[in-house]
């Protein structure tokens, strides 16, 4: 029982990796270094993987060559207001690209289960965080791979899909995770902390507050 877990270094992916382990899977963590401005999350992913993963692969894929997002270009990250609709922090087709790489990793490792920490409740309007996207991608993966057409299909798990951010914070506490290891900020200051003003920081802080759990995050 091996599973590929997309591990960004954020709280959601950390909880996802822990849930995969709790379910009895050997965790093969995959982190994508895509040129994101919040590259400090890669350090967080390494720290989390050291505790939760049996193997950790960091794959370089420079999406700054395309740009098109505040996370992969010089476009300012929005601050101090949660966006409604699809914000400029959306990276074109990011989860589609990441899941494609995860499927390739899974097929190479004869793994059939993949975990991704998307959720459709407290999120920033990204179209690739919705149930219909995950279902559609799973169907595509099972039609476009050797494993899939030979009856060794893939199952994509999105265990956080119906959770609010406060639910995820509570789940992290239940699992005994050190949330301080994770990093969520889209526009981290030079000291590697959290800006406290971007969408990701606002959702994170709200999640801890709503859960009634002390927030260990260092905000600037």
Question: What does this 3D model show about the protein?
Answer:
The longest helix is centred in the middle third of the chain and has 15 residues, at 94-108. The chain has a single domain (2-211), classed as HUPs (Rossmann fold). With 220 residues, the protein is of the alpha/beta class. It contains 7 helices and 5 strands, in the order βαβαβαβααβαα. Strands 3-2-1-4-5 form a 5-stranded parallel sheet, with helices on both faces. The radius of gyration is 16 Å and the shape is globular. α2 links the parallel β2 and β3 (55-60). α1 crosses α6 and α6 packs across α7 (199-211).
Average pLDDT works out at: 94
Write out the strand line-up for the largest beta sheet, numbering strands in chain order.
3-2-1-4-5
How far do the termini sit from each other? 41 Å
Tally of domains? 1
Shape: globular
SSE class? alpha/beta
CATH architecture: 3-Layer(aba) Sandwich
Proportion of residues in extended strands:
5-15%
CATH superfamily: HUPs
Low-pLDDT parts are none
- Biggest beta-sheet profile: 5 strands, parallel
CATH top level?
Alpha Beta
What are the secondary-structure elements, in order, as H or E? Answer: EHEHEHEHHEHH
Q: What is the number of helices?
A: 7
What is Rg? 16 Å
């Amino acid at each position: 029982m091996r599973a590929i877990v997309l591990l960004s270094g954020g709280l959601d992916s950390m909880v996802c990796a822990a849930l995969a382990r709790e379910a009895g899977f050997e965790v093969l963590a995959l982190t994508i270094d895509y040129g994101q401005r919040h590259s400090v999350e890669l350090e967080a992913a390494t720290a989390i993987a050291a505790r939760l993963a049996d193997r950790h692969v960091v794959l370089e894929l420079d999406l700054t060559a395309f740009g098109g997002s505040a996370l992969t270009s010089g476009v300012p990250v929005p601050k101090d207001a949660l966006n409604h609709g699809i914000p400029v922090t959306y990276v074109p087709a990011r989860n589609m690209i990441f899941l494609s790489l995860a499927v390739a990793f899974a097929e190479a490792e004869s793994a059939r289960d993949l975990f991704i920490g998307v959720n459709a409740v407290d999120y920033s309007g990204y179209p690739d965080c919705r149930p219909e996207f995950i279902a559609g991608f799973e169907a595509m993966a099972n039609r476009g791979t050797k494993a899939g057409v030979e009856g060794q299909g893939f199952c994509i798990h999105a265990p956080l899909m119906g959770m609010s951010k406060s639910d995820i914070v509570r789940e992290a506490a239940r699992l005994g995770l050190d949330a301080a290891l994770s990093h969520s900020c889209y526009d981290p200051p030079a000291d590697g902390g959290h800006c406290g003003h971007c969408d990701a920081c606002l959702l994170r802080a709200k999640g801890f507050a709503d859960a009634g759990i002390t927030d260990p995050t260092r905000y600037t």
